[in-house]
Amino acid sequence: EKENKWIVSCPTGKFKTKPECLILKLDPETAYQRAMMAEVMGNTKHLSGILSYLPWKVILAARVCRKWRVAARLTEIPESVTDDGWHTPELYIQNRDVAEALGWISDALPLIPSMNIDFGLRKSKSFKFADGIDPFPICVPTFGSQSHDDPVDIGDISNFRHLRKLSICSAKLNGSHSYLFDFPNLRSLTLTDVGDLRWDLSMLHGLPKLEKIRCIRNERLTGSIKSIRVVRQSLIDLCLSGCTEIQGNLMHIADFPQLRKVSLNGCEKIYGDIRQIGPHDFLAIEDMTSLPDSIYGGGDLPSIAETPEIMRAWSVLKKRNPRIFPYTCMSLSIYSPERYHNDVHHSRDMPTGVQFVNAGPRLGWRWTNSVAGCGACETNWLDPEPDQSDAGYDEYLKDLKKVETDVGFYKGFFAPPSQEEHLRRNSEVPLDPVLQQMHARRSQSYW
Known about the structure:
elongated; alpha/beta; 4-stranded antiparallel beta sheet
C-alpha cells in the first residue's frame, strides 16, 4: 500500500498501469492475500481498487460475501490489456451461457467498460437472438442455431451504463434493437456484418460522447450522414464501408474539429465534390483515401484531363498534413476510354496512378506505374521553385534529384501518352538488355 493505491499485475510482470501508482508484481494468489488484508481492515475502497486489476471472471468468483459483492459493484475495470493476455477487460459474448447471464453480470459488475459480441470465427456455435422491433422476414434458419433453442434476448446490455466500447461482429440480430444506441459514456462503436440490424444514423443522439464509429457491411443502416453531426465535437474515426443506404453530402462532416479518419467506401449514395474543400475544412484529417466514386475526385479519376484540377483540390489537405496519401493515392478509372495495355515490358506499362511528391517545401504530383527508377512521368509542380538565396535550397536540390531518378521511359511526358505515342516511343527507346532478356523469358513461359 502507498497513498491508498494498489496495483496488481500478471505473474510475468507485463502490464500497463498508471505511472503515479506503486507497482507491485503480484500473482493472483498474492492478490487475494492483499484483498483479504483489505477486507480485514474493512476498507471497501481498497478492496475494489485491488479487484480492478483482476480479470472480470476472477472478480465474479471472488464475490463470496456481502462486502466483496459491494466492492465488486464499485470496481472500475481498466481498459488496458497485458501483452500475454492475462488481463482481458472485455466481456466477450461468444456462447449462449454468457448471453443468458447478462442480467446478473450487469448487477454484479455494472462498471465493465468494454463488451464484444463476436461470432466471426465461431459461427458453428452461434445461436438465435430474439428479434427486435419490425424484423425482416428470413426464410433460411440462422446458421448454427437449433430449432429447439429459445431465442436469447440480450436487452440486458442496456444495464451496462458505463460501457465505453461496444463491438458486434457477425451476430444475427434482426430488426431494431434501440437499446444498443443508448450509452451516455460510449466512446467506440463497431458493427461488422450485422446485415439484418435495422437502425438509423439519427439514433446516434443516444451516444453523445462517441469518438469512433466503424460500421462495415451494414446493409440495413439508413439515414443521412448529416445526422452524425450530433457527435461533431468528439468524433475522431468514421468508417461506414459497405453501408450502401447512407445518403448525404460529404461536406456535412467537413467542420468536425477532431475528425482524423474517414472511410466511405461503397457508400454510393453519398455525394460531394473534392474541389469544394476549403482551407477551414477537415482541419484534423489524416486519412481520407477510401471514398466512393459518387464523390467527384474521391474515387477513381474520370479522365486524364480532369486530373490536374482534382489534384490541386487534394493538395489543400496534403499541405496541411503531409501524412495524407504517402504513396500512390488514386488511379485512372478502369472504365476510362483513355486506358490501354500494350505488350511491352512491365516497367513501360501505362502510368495510370497518381502520387504526390515533395522536394523540400515544394509540393507536386505525377503519373506513375509504380515501377521504381523508370515508371514515373515528369512532375507537375504545384508550388514555385524556391529561390537560391532561400534557406534549405541545397536540401531542395537533393530531394529534386531523388524525384527525377524515377523518371526514365516517360521523360518529357507530364501525362500518360496516347496508345500510339506509347508504341512509337517504345520502338524508339531501346530496352535495357537485361530487362529485354527478362521480358523475353516471361513471354515464352506465358505461352
